[in-house]
User: What shape does this take?
Amino acid sequence: QVQLVESGGGLVQAGGSLRLSCAASRTVVTLNTMGWYRQAPGKQRELVARVNSISSHVYADYVKGRFTISRGNAKNTVDLQMNDLKPEYTADYYCDAAVRSAINLAQAGAYWGQGTQVTVSP
Assistant: This one.
């Protein structure tokens, strides 16, 4: 069973930056696609960004130009650099992963982390 562990969340003021990281364990399989979703209180979970093994990526419109997703140097890791944060970005951020590629890069994978909280104060 693949285990995903997120880190890097926290409290930041509007306009600030955070870097989220996710690492997979308990697997020898290379994860093709990894990404990030977020869920704000009372709202559905939604895509933030995803990236595959050849660095093709997809971003939600609301983060384009602010967030950058990248595969880490270590195997089965993914980072999300978040700049110019806004209070409306406050949410729990979840890492996801898929072993195989999908036609739709935005399609969520089968594996999920426990989430890391991001709070952006005004």
